[in-house]
Amino acid sequence: MSEQENNGQGPAAAGQQPQQPGTQFKVQRVYLKDLSFEAPMGVEAFRQSSQPGVEQELNTQITRIDETTHEVVLLLTVTAKSEGRTVFLVEVKQAGLFHVQGFEGMQLNQVLNTTCAQILFPYVREVIDSTLMRGTFPPLMLPPINFDAVFAQAVSQAKKKAESGQPEGSNVQ
Questions:
Q1: What is the pTM assigned to this prediction?
Q2: Domain containing residue 107: CATH number
């Protein structure tokens, strides 16, 4: 892909602070990378009288494609369990290619882990709702996630581990 100019689709357009001079941010492509749906209980799941407990696990994977292009994958796994048995499991890998230029270090990490994730999250929500409805389960409206707070917490945990001499196991990149 050729380099493209920023046309207002940067962090400012995503509700973030305005861009600094010399920085560029552009969404090049958003795509569904992987989708998995399981309903291991089969028809028995529809005969349950109790509401299943729902758990979600969120992760971000970042791959540098070239000097200015990064692939960001938002991985969300939603599991519903009733009486210790899995009613359904949905795993979505929603990805995007992002042109990011002029950001370095922690600022680049924050843009990739927060701004990009915020852009991808509505797509993940829609895929999960649509998939559950096709499995004839009620839609599951996931609440919004404050990716800035999640990132800040991960940075704080990484600093505490570094200060205590423990090896880093954080997802902060």
A1: 0.78
A2: 3.10.420.10
